[in-house]
Amino acid sequence: xxxxxxxxxxxxxxxxxxxxxxxxxxxxxxxxxxxxxxxxxxxxxxxxxxxxxxxxxxxxxxxxxxxxxxxxxxxxxxxxxxxxxxxxxxxxxxxxxxxxxxxxxxxxxxxxxxxxxxxxxxxxxxxxxxxxxxxxxxxxxxxxxxxxxxxxxxxxxxxxxxxxxxxxxxxxxxxxxxxxxxxxxxxxxxxxxxxxxxxxxxxxxxxxxxxxxxxxxxxxxxxxxxxxxxxxxxxxxxxxxxxxxxxxxxxxxxxxxxxxxxxxxxxxxxxxxxxxxxxxxxxxxxxxxxxxxxxxxxxxxxxxxxxxxxxxxxxxxxxxxxxxxxxxxxxxxxxxxxxxxxxxxxxxxxxxxxxxxxxxxxxxxx
Amino acid sequence: xxxxxxxxxxxxxxxxxxxxxxxxxxxxxxxxxxxxxxxxxxxxxxxxxxxxxxxxxxxxxxxxxxxxxxxxxxxxxxxxxxxxxxxxxxxxxxxxxxxxxxxxxxxxxxxxxxxxxxxxxxxxxxxxxxxxxxxxxxxxxxxxxxxxxxxxxxxxxxxxxxxxxxxxxxxxxxxxxxxxxxxxxxxxxxxxxxxxxxxxxxxxxxxxxxxxxxxxxxxxxxxxxxxxxxxxxxxxxxxxxxxxxxxxxxxxxxxxxxxxxxxxxxxxxxxxxxxxxxxxxxxxxxxxxxxxxxxxxxxxxxxxxx
Lengths: 366, 306
Description:
The structure holds two protein chains of two kinds. Chain A is mainly α. Chain A has helices spanning about 1-5, 15-20, 35-55, 60-85, 85-120, 145-180, 185-195, 200-210, 220-245, 245-255, 260-270, 275-290, 290-295, 315-325, 330-365. The two termini of chain A are about 35 Å apart. By secondary structure, chain B is an all-alpha fold. Chain B contains twelve helices and two strands. Chains A and B meet through helix 4, helix 5, helix 7, helix 8 and helix 9 of A and helix 1, helix 3, helix 4, helix 5 and helix 6 of B.
């Protein structure tokens, strides 16, 4: 940007530059060596100032240091660029640095959280964690595992997925393929459902399933709550997927004389298959980590309960939730290992969904 | 109409089972008083309601600048490969369970929060919110800490909604601004942000709604107090969702009725916030230019699936 802007009024005393480089082609977004030097100098100066500040004040926190460093850096950088290139370039550079920091913060947070969970959870991860439950071990004894929670998560999320996926795909087909008269309305309902706080969804299932129909806490009740929460996600993602499919495909099938149901069943859905799988996986990734509604529906239990329909059942989030709040190291260690498995599940599902999604996106574009 | 029925049914069921507690506490008193003593039949979520809103407000202060920067960086600055990576990062941040954020906050973030809160209380105590009633008070498990965590959790939704809105800016206008000699920041300030303003407001309100309903992370982080706690840095805060999550396991029928009533209060508040969001976005849409933006708000929200 540096060389282009200097001809504007108020560009300060950078005009010298414009004279020397007047005949060169201008690449407003390229960085000259001089720009890089300015950036690095400001960064180093800010780091020095932060270091001094922290030594004098005897502060410790790395987070606080980063915040201070960034504030100082922005000020120094602005002054330096302002002196060399004038105020417009200075404002531009300063905002570039600030905006880039946003992306950097997100990345840093993700890395910090995931690495922290791995660091905390890995030490207690042993094979027994997958084959034992907590019914026979005391809170202070070593051993025990999350078998009951893993079974619960598999059953609850499995049931919820089995209900959600067909329902969501049918709804998406109705919304995008049939474009029925009820479509705007149904879309609105799906919107309203997605805005529902998950704990309220849990309370809703609690009042209807457990208080109204006296079914008692069970994995099934948890699965119903998951259906309420996963349905909007999967429906709208599926609709987006159907939207990416070329209309030419539908039209050629219709032109060949196929009835609409056949077009949908034999052309649209097979074309969208991997995209729809992506939608389902994203829904599962969301359901796996839901904790709040499960407290009110599945309730949790330290025993292995194979049946999803009778008596309370645990799942991974409930396992972690009940142990992390206990005041002893063994339990907290177990909770972290449970959290590690959860994070691993979410990361794995997410990666699979992304790879599949990219594959389907690439194909529909071709 | 059907949506009204669904919303109405949710309200009706919650209301029906909240009735015993509401009757015991008094209809108005339940939302105004700050007391939780189920065995005596005394309920009141006034303080928790205020705490819930304060946590969400702190969350917005944390999330909006970061989310907007990220959105602008992805849309306007990042080269294609970096853009795809960053979109993945933001989506993944949205996909991590609330439980994980809460645990990370207690074990990793809390020491830093304590230091930052101390600095705020020493240097910014001119502001009433940053004052401490007790100089030796603990500076963790506070509204501030919960707000920071919830703020981090709502970054993805605000980022993706405002990103979708801002990507609808007519490209010719952006190029026009650049061709007139404007800097990239000048273009963002004068073209992208004014165009996306209503969408950004909508995104912020959606983030606010999410922050109000955030349960597990808040429940893990704060130490729950029922009285209103206006001092954001001091230990102790209130949240309706956290109340329900932490008290449900040990509660008897009477107390659970109280919790359903508290959930009803939360439901009403989130409903109001969502409606206000919709009104603001619709009004902005009527002024023109933002019709596309309005559609993408709704779509983007569902894409996120948080």
